[in-house]
Amino acid sequence: MVTMTARSRVSLVILLFCTLALGLFGIGRSLWLDEAWVANSIHAPSLQEMFYYPDWLQTSPPSFLLLSRAAINLVGLSNASFRLVPLAFALIASAAMFILSRRVLSPPFAVLASALIVFNPAFVEYSHSAKQYSGEVAATALVLLATVLYLEAPSRSKLLLLTITVVLSLTFAYPVVFLLPALLAAVWFTNARNAAVLGAAAGVALFLLWAFFIRFNTAPELRAFWAADADALFTPGLIAAVLVVLAISLGLLLHRPLEARQWTQLLCATPCLLLAIASVSHWYPATQRMRLWVLPCFILACLIAVEDLFPTKRLGAVAIAIAILFATVNVRDQIRDHRDLAEEDFSGAFQYLKDHARPGDLVLVHAAAREGFRLYSAMLGWNGPPPLYGNTGWPCCARGKDARPGQSTEVSVIQDVTSMIPRGFSGQIWLFYSTRPSHWKYVGLNEGDLWRKTAWERGCPPGPYMSLKNLAVSPMECSSVLR
Fold it and tell me: How far is CA 470 from CA 33, 63, 343, 397, 410, in A?
């Protein structure tokens, strides 16, 4: 039994304070594309439209959506309100990670393990982003903690706690499924019947999630999107990480018998290997945000190995020093890189357009900016002319749209733009589109520039160009549009 000392409690409070401070840093910034469609689905008129968003594949898990919907119903629509649940999940993840680490690591290494989560740049980013990834980290830490509690002293009450934790975690973090093989094996070696009960409960939960949520929100374009980045995922550092985890796993298999500490290490190592296999097979992407959930597993597996290889108290000071250095560098980077500023300034671009568009103007919104425009129409109000939405260059994964790389052509884009501008139109046209390089690289064609060129060639030269972060508002002055 591990008890929390006064020093451990102080460490936990400091870690939670840092999580909160970093999460609040930038919580009010404009939502960008990936957040905007999630926010629109959360704010959908009905639960059915939220779970099965008509315009986009709903990849966010149901519990995350329900909690986020409750938050905006409670405090209203704002940039910050859509990020309250991710911040709450980040706090839960930080607390669970520290409590878990204290049960399997010495106090200095527990602080290091938690610091590697709390100050991880990706974790900080998604603690104040309207996405589910901080919830996935929380789910991983909670499942691991419940498992460790069970393995330390198997009992019916601990099995019940573990079962409830696994089932609930699956509803707000689909990647928990990667933990199940090693988890069930660990429980099986303590009691086969308990493993059967846990497996049945998890199986029923997965079936219901698939039947009611997942199967309606999958498409070939989603796997194509994952595959597009697969070749660039396995950097030398990531390959080295996989090899380290593989070596740890092989060492554990040679260890007999496996006790609670070794089972915990195996439970942490196995999802890392399964994720690598799934990514290579294009079943699940190992992009930075999509593999964030496995970070607690990797950290614990490695730090347990370090403590076992170098059982000396002098390493404690080294662990604390590394934790302080890691925290200092990443806090500095958050401030220096202005991570409190928007990735795409939809709110600023929308407000500018709202202030300048007149009733007789044409407002053309590119498909990649559609969700952001719709979101801020609801949040800030739109009293201008009805917008016309483009139908090319879609980001992944709009429902019913082929957004695979290479689908956009110059001919189709020109036809799309000209179809939205009436022949002989005289007046002002407003073009609202993304300038994010990564999007146009994925599409294979910079459609924003092509929109401006097409309008200009048809008698609408550009007016004062407004460029915000990764977005543009471009007025085009038309004397008379030629077709």
Answer: 10, 31, 7, 19, 22
Whether residue 431 contacts residue 474, with contact meaning beta carbons closer than 8 Å, is answered with: yes
Q: Cα angle vertex 323, ends 320, 325, to 5°?
A: 110
Q: DSSP label at 340?
A: T
The residue assigned the tokens 């030269």 is 461
The tens digit of pLDDT for each residue in 201-245 reads: 999 999 999 999 999 998 777 776 766 655 555 677 788 888 899
The candidate with the shortest Cα–Cα distance to 356, out of 251, 266, 463, is 463
Residue 299 contacts residue 323 (beta carbons within 8 Å): no
Rounded CA-CA distance 476/204 in Å is 57
Nearest in space to 127 (alpha carbons), one of 9, 33, 15: 15
List, in order of start, the domains of the chain with CATH numbers: 6-336 (no CATH), 346-478 (3.40.50)
Q: Tell me how far apart the alpha carbons of residues 353 and 384 are, in angstroms, rounded to a whole number.
A: 9
Encode 26-63 in three state secondary structure.
CCCCCCCHHHHHHHHHHCCCCHHHHHCCCCECCCCCHH
Cβ contact 63:132 at 8 Å: no
Model confidence pLDDT, tens digit, residues 455-480: 999 889 998 889 999 999 999 999 76
pTM over 0.85: yes
